Please model this.
Amino acid sequence: MATTNPAGLVRPIAVIGGTGPAGMGLALRWARAGETVIIGSRNEERAQQTAAAIQRRAGPDAIVSGMENAAACAAADILMLTVPFEGQATLLKELKPAMTAGSILIDATVPLAASVGGRASRTLGVWQGSAAQQAAELVPKEVSVVAAFHNVSADMLNGDAPLDCDVIVCSNDADASQLTRELAAKIPGVRALDGGPLQNARIVEQITALLIGMNIRYKGHAGVRITGLPPTAYR
Ligand SMILES: NC(=O)c1ccc[n+]([C@@H]2O[C@H](COP(=O)([O-])OP(=O)(O)OC[C@H]3O[C@@H](n4cnc5c(N)ncnc54)[C@H](OP(=O)(O)O)[C@@H]3O)[C@@H](O)[C@H]2O)c1
Model:
């Protein structure tokens, strides 16, 4: 079932930077779950090719299209940002005029040191505290920023098996956090948890660097599971 607004209209999800492994994997899982997905790219043709590839895998009932990033932003009010840290700020400044008031921007950016030629198992300091907080400074004030999906393996998302991980969601907007948790829970095997305010994104982003180090060490696809909370905590 697609996510709808109070008027019953379908709310498409625009995956900005959706041609990379993280965006493609999320798009695939949401398309399979019945969401309407728009792949965004700096290049319209690449977006459309990626959308066609996801459509083939998700099946004939899936609704997936491809657009240049700004057009994708303008066509949706749920925006999933999956670009590398080095491109995040410039891209958000470019896309700001295309974002509509009331939109939700879900940010998965991890400020990896690889962005500046360093190691993927280390992070950079971000002045605002986290990449997600940087994003919040750059979008219109009527756009709510949510931090999520940092600790999910793109390799696992792009497979067919259920995942074995939790998604920690941080936001200062309770409704946007809840909607993001509902979207996360549509991915088989994923449980979504309220990780508190957006400033906690700094902790969640850092965990990814730890997971990448473990993946290198053990040659795996590590994720996190949070235990010991009441069943009602998990969506
Ligand atoms: N890979 C994972 O397992 C994983 C897991 C969790 C979170 N993340 C985070 O999710 C984000 C995306 O990860 P990824 O592995 O999919 O990244 P990626 O393949 O490096 O980049 C994703 C897409 O972003 C666009 N892009 C690249 N450089 C850009 C720039 N300078 N400005 C604007 N757009 C640019 C490209 O699309 P176009 O060229 O088509 O525009 C590219 O296909 C990263 O911040 C990463 O830390 C990744």
